[in-house]
Amino acid sequence: MKIKANGITINYQIDGPEGAPWIVFSNSLATSIAMWDEQAAALKDSFRVLRYDQRGHGGTEVPAGRYAFDTLLADALGLMDALEIKKAHFAGLSMGGATALGLAERHPDRFDRIVVCDSPCQSSPQSAQQWEERIAIAKDKGIEVLVEPTVSRWFPPETVAKNPPHLDKIRTMFRTTPVNGFIGCAAALADHDYASAAASVKHPVLFLVGEKDAPAPAMRKLNEKLPGSRYVELPGAGHISNMDRPAEFNHAVREFLNAG
Description:
Number of domains: 1
CATH topology: Rossmann fold
CATH class: Alpha Beta
Order of helices and strands: EEEHEHEHEHHHHHEHEHH
Strand content: 15-25%
Number of strands: 8
CATH architecture: 3-Layer(aba) Sandwich
Number of helices: 11
Largest sheet: 8 strands, mixed
Helix content: 40-55%
Radius of gyration: 17 Å
């Protein structure tokens, strides 16, 4: 389904019974709402599950140019407004994880529990340079040349060697991501910082990360910075931890959402 919000047309999907508590899922770079298929199936029995494609991804509109990360926050909030959702739990992974923490900081009255997955929630000079390099490649050569290097970065070597079906699902989502959407969101990832203000968040927060994902140490520090937050590592999982270990991921999320 599609709806106009924050000046663009956003693609979204809703599962679960009317009247149930809302949970919103926000995707990573170069994926779509399809990355959350396992979570929607697992949680729709007791939650109203809203998935949406971030700006420039999936079926959502693809404005040209570099996106500011605060624009991605405004998209999520605008979608909630358009769907008349007053309050929701919010979960996101990687780019979506930073979206989740940023929303908790900037709009605390709109959210209950926050799930931040596989994201340090800030850029660094080194990561900014890496993003600029990937932007240059996408502009010059297109998306395809970035697919396999990204899969090798996102997943542990043993997972890549086994090549389970979810890796091909990732490859398909990546290949179908519009170049302008990749560039716009990569620019946002190159210049954002929601980690510095993490201690200001008053909501219950779950930091959920793959054991073998690069942001794990940074997320442990976020957990230490925010009293009362939870930290869960999923054994053997890489960057897209919800697809690597869906059963363990779903259990951790459900347990957290039902805790309060």
